[in-house]
Amino acid sequence: MFRNSKLASAVKLAGMVGAASTILTTPLYAQESSGEEEVNVEKIAVTGSRIRKADFSSNAPVATISAEQFTLTNSVNTEALLNTLPQTVPGLDRSSNNPGGGIATVNLRGLGTSRTLVLVDGIRATPTTAAGVVDINTIPAALIEDVEVLTGGASAVYGSDAVAGVVNFKLKRNFEGAEAQVSYETTEEGDAGIWNGSFTVGGNFDDNRGNVVLSLQYTEREELFAGDREISAVALDDAVAEDGSLFLESFGSSGVPGTSIFAAGLPDEFGGGGIFDPDGSFRPFVQSGEPNDFYNFAPVNYLQLPQERYNITALGRYEITDNIEVYGQGSFANSFVPQQLAATPVFETSEFTLDGNPFIDAEAQQILSDAIGGDVDTDNDGIADTATALVRRRLLEVGARIAEDTSTKFSILAGLRGAFGDSAWEYDLYYQTGEVTQDTIQLGNVNVDRFNQALLLATDESGQVILDADGNPSCSDTASNGGLTGCTPLNIFGEGNISEESAEFISTRVNSAQKFEQDVFGFNITGDTGDFFELPGGAIGLSVGFERREENFSFDPSQDLAASTIAGFNGSPPVSGNIEVNDYFVEAYLPLVSDVAFAELIDLELAYRYANYSTIGGVSSFKVAGSWAVNDKVRFRAGFNRAVRAPNIDELFSPQSEGNPSAEDPCSSQAVDQSEAVRAICLATGVPANAVFTPSLDAISGQTSGLFGGNPELQEEEADTVTIGAVFSPIEDLNISIDYFDIEIEDAVFDFGGGVNNILQSCYDTSNENGGVGSAFCDVITRRADGTIDFVEVLSQNVGKLALKGVDLSVNYSFDLAGGNMRVSYLGTYTDENSFQTSAADPVIDCAGQFGDTCGEPVQDYKHRATVQWGQDDFDVQLLWRFIGSTEDDNDDVVFVQETTGSVSYFDLTGTYYLNDHFKLNAGVRNLFEKEPLVFGANSEQSNTYPATYDVFGRTYFAGITATF
Fold it and tell me: Are 68 and 5 in contact, with CB atoms under 8 Å apart?
């Protein structure tokens, strides 16, 4: 048998699972007592309802992750385990270098992290971001008893944000003794190590009327660079144009970060682009073969973010009387997570001194003067004084871009709960206040104004560059810029030519501080009508309550960051906002019929919530669900939820800020459709005739700048969720459940046009009747004089629709085998539809089985998590099989020569061994067969793949020891 797991009797009460269970859906219903003797059965509540009942069976699918799974899989960061669930699409995790922000998130059904509500013991966790997203790293893994995951709308029970569902972390509440844990993991390469240690102590006092628990946890995660793995060592961007050209900076394993000049007027042999060698000479840009001139930015990016984290949590409760208990919780978490990207890529249309510039040789001066020179030639020597061009330069001399994020969380919860006399009615009154601050320091940014200032050299009246005795020029403008004096001329014309003084002048260190404050006050009364009224199936369960929530967020950036006068990281203006909401809710459980022929139980659940927001006014949500237990072997269940999500602070109050998503200009050489019809739209939207379909318009690193911002006029999203399912227990200890889900979200908050890429495609799609010249899509595209895209304006609006349909299947079976106990657990999801529509004028895009620039993270048609667990006496072993179905590129018109697709299976082998009553060992191997990740090139999220979905680390070993006293 499993030590302390009681696996053989894992299901004692419906809605609960045994301590040794893996990932299960809720079982059928309570085990019946034998005989006529009255048995006191504990009443419980499962995520999805506040009503506590002895015979509770969830009328919606609930998956439970036990504490044992955290030990067996060595999941010191909770998102690592949650991301293995088929109901989730991976959010941010340890590989999220860009995007990232140093936090970890959970994303149910792929509907977005802002549509997933995170609870701790049924109470909202304090968010971290302006979007109201919780960093689940702040939840103490060492204290987790289990995690319940409810998919489908739950707004009527828990309020806004629960559109996709709820993830409820249940903490250990009656811990006694002392427990110390330490573990370490490393890959087969001997890198990417993670140390974790925790110490928990607690006990009862005053004849068990009270209990106090204190838990400390420390985690240290080592850095791993993309250059340390073959898949990510070279940044792939290998879209093949019709002429076979490759003209994006991110391609190539060789090349130099020298300055590139792109202009349609260059001589034919330059093909629209040239590059400077270190001696100041100018030659054609080599765009293919080895070596080439594209810069490989990949190796210095983090593949695993380093992290240092502290968690301190204290829990306590005390029974003042038999009917009054006070309880509380205090939590502190501090996390330091740096991110690192390659040196700043400047992509600016800049003016620079040309005639007599000592950094540029004479031949190059003449070539550039003829192609892009200005109108002024003071000394009439045939070379213009200055030139203006689209300049590309990797500023390696400035150093890597580093963002150091320090996050600190405080929260305090105090409550009072108990019963009204000897009745079945209970109350719970609580207040929680929490604050999460995140301080960020950015290194490696460049001040654009000072960059341009340092390109113009001082000249005399004849236009000649003034040189000192050592032959060095000076800046034409020596005024203070951005608070910094001492302009030093900038020699960007060739690799390694920027001096230390120049690098110091153009670089800028920026910082920001953000704070999310949340105060929650709640009161609810729960009970049943057993003392005065019963339906044929039993007493009616009721719960009524009130919750008030106030949320405040502020983001304060330093000057350069706020003004977006930087190149490197994106500019971010200040943000602040406040939301207050008062919620009133009622829930009822009606056992209509019980213990009759063909109806062991027929019940009905009803819930209604009215919420009054300071931002959007009053909104309502409701739930109707029910079940029919034919007998103790077959039960059917169904539910309908009307859920709402109020717009968050980010969506409402965020000012316009920069972003650089993956997108290509349909007028560039990368354009799939280079027809005359598209050319006409390009010309009409500001592209010079000699630049259409040329490399001069190609997006740097496949990215295009967008301006994103909030909208205070936003209203709520509305979602309808339908679930229909059945639970079967044909033999003892075998439970099978199958559930169909259908979620539709109206008035979904979307960036206008569905984002930069969709706007560009819609504007230049000649088959789209809503696109073309003068359309709303083309009107938000701003181009520079040379035709390159300056930015695409994208703002939040209630214009979208989302639809999700599929089936969840769960199987759990335990039986005796070879002198031990075997448990098989399977949880799979088939997704039939995962579609979105960004506006009524746009087509419906179904991302089921797709990935790429439009759909993003792969959404598999089918995936599962299955475990086989066997235990005997002091030994337990588990084999985990995680299957990730195949997906296809959402852009069928582009061929990616480096792209691979197909299904992937990962196997993990883990085990525990009890040395004695006080010491337990656990060890395991992840990715047992060292399955290689899929390669996606330009369509990847980062590191040429989707590292939160596909393992980029390879075979990984871990071991740990737990001491209990």
Answer: yes
Q: Closest by alpha carbon to 778, among 684, 662, 877?
A: 684
Longest dimension (CA), the chain: 113
Please name the residues in contact with 854: beta carbons below 8 A apart, sequence gap of 6 or more: 754, 757, 758, 845, 847, 890, 891
Supply the DSSP symbol for 786.
T
* CA 549/CA 522 separation, integer angstroms: 9
Beta strands 919-926 and 888-889 are unpaired
Percentage above 90 pLDDT, the chain: 58
- Name residues whose C-beta falls within 8 Å of residue 783's C-beta, 6 or more positions apart in sequence: 685, 686, 687, 789, 790
CB-based contacts of 362: which residues, under 8 Å, 6+ apart?
none
pTM: 0.84
CA–CA distance, 581 with 618 (Å, rounded to integer): 9
How large is the average pLDDT for residues 378-401?
A: 91
Closest to 795 (Cα-Cα) out of 728, 709, 876, 725: 709
In three-state secondary structure terms, 935 is: coil
pLDDT-based confidence at residue 57 (cuts at 50, 70, 90): low
Residue 560 CB-density burial (10 A; 0-12 exposed, 13-18 middle, 19+ buried): buried
Residues 6+ apart with CB under 8 A from 383: 354, 355, 365, 366, 369, 373, 377
User: Is residue 10 within 8 Å of residue 824, measured between CB atoms?
Assistant: no
Q: Do you know the residue count of the chain?
A: 965
- CA 884 from chain center: how many Å? 19
Q: Decide: helix, strand or coil at residue 882.
A: strand
Q: What is the pLDDT of residues 499-518, one digit of tens each?
A: 999 999 999 999 999 999 99
Tell me, rounded to whole angstroms, the distance of Cα 780 from its chain centroid. 27
- Of residues 284, 298, 299, 300, the one with CA closest to residue 249: 298
Cis? peptide before 299, omega within 30° of 0? no
Exposure string for 129-143, b = 16+ CB within 10 A, e = fewer: bbbbbbbbbbbbbbb
Q: How far, in Å, CA of 416 to CA of 428, rounded?
A: 6
Report pLDDT digits (tens) over 449-502: 999 999 999 999 988 999 998 889 999 998 887 667 789 999 999 888 999 999
Beta-bridge mates of residue 525: 427, 544
Number of H helices, E strands in the chain: 11, 45
| Nearest-10 Cα torsion for 784, 786, 787, 789 | -40
With contact defined as beta carbons under 8 Å apart, do 41 and 30 qualify? Answer: yes
Sorted by where each begins, the domain ranges of the chain are 254-293+345-394+456-489
Q: Do residues 605 and 571 lie in contact, with contact meaning Cβ atoms separated by under 8 Å?
A: no
Which helix (H) or strand (E) segment is 371 a member of? helix 362-372
Residues 6+ apart with CB under 8 A from 773: 681, 684, 685
Contact (Cβ atoms closer than 8 angstroms) between residue 661 and residue 706: yes
Share of the chain above pLDDT 70, in %: 91
In a 3-state reduction of DSSP, which class is residue 27?
A: coil
Decide if pLDDT at 29 tops 60: no
Structure tokens at 235: 């940044």
Give the separation between CA 346 and CA 233, rounded to whole angstroms: 22
Name, in order, each residue with C-beta under 8 angstroms of 770's C-beta and a sequence gap of 6 or more. 762, 776, 777, 841, 842
| 159 CB-contact burial (10 Å; exposed 0-12 / middle 13-18 / buried 19+) | buried
Q: How far is CA 600 from the centre of its chain?
A: 44
Tokens of residue 467, six digits: 């040189």
Output the 3-class SS for 398-438: HCCEEEEEEEEEEEEEEEEEEECCCCCCEEEEEEEEEEEEE
In the predicted model, is pLDDT for residue 700 greater than 80? no
